[in-house]
Amino acid sequence: MTTQATYDDVNLVLRLYELRRETKLRAAREWFAGTLRARTLEELDQACPEGSEASAYFRMVVSYWEMVASFLTGGVLHEELFYQSGGEMLLVWEKIKDLLPALRRRHANPLLYRNLEQAAGRYIRWLNQQAPGAYDNLAARIRDTQSGA
Q1: If 0-12 CB within 10 Å is exposed, 13-18 middle and 19+ buried, where does residue 79 land?
Q2: Torsional class of 45: left (φ above 0), alpha (ψ -120 to 50), beta (otherwise)
Q3: Are 89 and 127 in contact (CB under 8 A)?
């Protein structure tokens, strides 16, 4: 990224952080990071039955990060500035990436979470350039958590 971050970029990052502190989203994020261990669509359905609080939490967290990712892919948010403090997006990506093909089929929507997929890919490339091995380490820790190790 060659452009300088602006005060508007900083304010958007701060606003996104404030939104993450909202009580319900904070609870959803805690559940998502600490409790959700679905690696297949069947496991997701079991963990998040339709109409359940867990289902609402899943949708809340993933749609929040899809929104943030749309700011990145749309060029509204300075990527490098975001990357320096937005690591939670990679946690969300790692937890849903294997589920994504089945979710897209279920919803007959090949665009489902496309912004998150694209933004995470760019973030991962940036992180690999800045700190080789850091992403692999993060992904391995998330996988270990997913498997209960």
Answers
A1: buried
A2: alpha
A3: no
* Gap between the terminal Cα atoms of the chain: 37
Helix 23-34, helix 7-20: angle, nearest 10: 80
Average pLDDT of span 118-141? 96
- What pTM was estimated for this model as a whole? 0.92
What is the per-residue pLDDT across 21-79, written as a single tens digit (0 to 9) for each? 999 999 999 999 999 999 999 999 999 999 999 999 999 999 999 999 999 999 999 99
**pLDDT of the residue at 146:** 77
Asked whether 126 and 83 are in contact (CB, 8 A), the reply is: yes
Alpha carbon distance 109, 147 (integer Å): 28
- In order of 19, 42, 43, 90, 91, the CA distances from 136 in angstroms are 28, 26, 24, 11, 12
* Separation between Cα atoms, residue 141 and residue 81, nearest integer Å: 24
Please give the pLDDT value at position 28. 98
Tokens of 109: 């929507």
- The mean pLDDT value of the chain amounts to 95
- DSSP, collapsed to helix, strand or coil, labels residue 22 as coil
